[in-house]
Amino acid sequence: MENLGSYFIFIGGLFGFTIICVLIFVLMSKTEHLHQLQAALYKMKRSFNELDEQAKLIVKTDLELNKSQEESAKRLNALDALQKASRLISTTLDENEIFHRLEQSLITKLGFEKSIVLIYDEVKKLQKKVSWGFSDDDIQFIIGDIEKDSSLTLSLAQGHTFSSVKAPLQRRETINRLFNVEHFVLTPILTKNGIIGLVFVGNRSNAAPITEGDEELVSILANQIGQSLENARLFEEVFRSSQVLESKVQDRTKQLASALEEVQTVSKTKTEFISAVSHELRTPLTSIKGYASLLMTGKLGNIPDQVRDRLEKINTHSDNLVKLINDLLDIARIESGRVEMTMRKVQLAHMIENVRDLLTPQIRDKNLQWELEIDPQLPEVELDSSQFERVFINLIGNAIKFTPEKGAITIKAAHDNGWINIEISDTGIGISEEDMDRLFEEFYRVENPINQKVKGTGLGLSLAKKIVEAHNGKIWITSKLNQGTTFHFTIPVKQPGHDEKR
């Protein structure tokens, strides 16, 4: 029995031990599982915290993105408004219209509640041009305070912009109190001539703060206003100058017209006087020449040689006077249009040859070389041969007179598109530029040794010019001292308004 009891005790102890071992094993398994669960819980907490942080970051990023989008939208709206404002004020040259186009809605779109545009007048006093959010009393107070603040006006004149973003604290507080705002931009309107005004925009404390982008936009708007005002004022100045110039031109035109009328009257009177005097002189000259010729014939008795010499001089001088009077009459007639040109087709080569035959004695006396360069295909020219022959006689005679012995005279003639170009050149003493300007004036004679020895009337070149112009031509001269002179003239092949005659 004792053994059996011991057996049962042993079995009971073993069973208890087994149960304890099982319980210990189960407890250890539970503990391990608990550790695993605690580790998983910790991991889950950490993951949750990370997710929470990421969620917060996402929310923050989303808020910043929304804010950036709002800022971008605001900036785009402001840029669009600025672009419209620039286009509107840059398309007018009226100063008042520029400010009229700066509507309140435009400034509102830029994101501001209050604004003022002040412009300096002619006496450098600020004048209100545009304002929103301010009473007239406010504006007068603001203008007075700005004009008293020399440091502020000097800084603005130097191109400085003040804003609630980066203005010094004391300056920012002063401007806040003056304009009764919390956020602001105050910028000058500048042109190449300096400051001409100011632009102010601002918001109260319940509005969004001013950014550097806002400051930049307002500065751009101020620059655009300055450019538009400068263009408008420049246009006004040019317009006024043109009006004054036009008035002066009209006055001067009237004076010139009056002077021209006086000149024409004087010229007409001169022509009529020369014509009348020339006609009056011809009769006694004819008598003088006739009596001198009669006495020289000896029909009234023998004439001593000394008397005959005097009579020959009277006859020669009478011929010179008759030529002078005839030249004067011809000039007067051409100027008054009383000379009726008889236009016929003429070969210029034949006319030039006839003039050469007439002047051959003078050419031979000085042993001058005669050269012709005439186009063999030169067409016949419509002109008054009796009148135009005098042109060649005067010009070639002038060349002979001023060309030294063994010199050369060259005649050129060519056809060019309905015009005949003629040149008469010599190797004479030449003419100064001062004398060339007056060479075709009536009675003008160049001061030189040859003219001092040889008498003349000073009418030959003037008459030649009148005849060329009467043929719708043009005459001019080129010359170099001590190298020679060339007379150029052009005439049309066919004279307008004249029937062809042979």
Record keyword descriptors for this entry:
502 residues, alpha+beta, Beta-Lactamase, Heat Shock Protein 90, 5-stranded antiparallel sheet, 5-stranded mixed sheet, 12 strands, 61% helix
Plain-language structure description:
61% of the residues lie in helices and 16% in strands. It contains 13 helices and twelve strands. The protein is an alpha+beta fold and 502 residues long. Strand 9 and strand 10 form a beta hairpin. Among the domains are: 151 residues, GAF domain (Beta-Lactamase, 2-Layer Sandwich), CATH 3.30.450.40; 149 residues, Histidine kinase-like ATPase, C-terminal domain (Heat Shock Protein 90), CATH 3.30.565. It is elongated. Strands 2-1-5-4-3 form a five-stranded antiparallel β-sheet, with helices on both faces. It has a five-stranded mixed β-sheet with strand order 7-9-10-12-11, covered by helices on one side. About 1% of the residues have low confidence.
Distance between the termini: 190 Å
Tell me, what is the CATH class of the domain at 90-240? Alpha Beta
Number of helices: 13
Overall 3D form: elongated
Cα gyration radius (Å): 56 Å
- Residue share in β-strands: 15-25%
Stretches where pLDDT falls below 50 for ≥5 residues?
Answer: 450-454
Please state the second-level CATH architecture of the domain at 90-240: 2-Layer Sandwich
The residue-averaged pLDDT reads 78
- Number of extended strands: 12
Largest sheet: 5 strands, antiparallel
Q: What's the arrangement of strands in the largest beta sheet?
A: 2-1-5-4-3
| Amount of helix | 55-70%
Which secondary-structure class do the elements indicate? alpha+beta
SSE order, one letter for each helix or strand: HHHEEHHEHEEHHEHEEHEEHHHEE
CATH-assigned fold name of the domain at 90-240: Beta-Lactamase
**Could you name the CATH homologous superfamily of the domain at 90-240?**
GAF domain
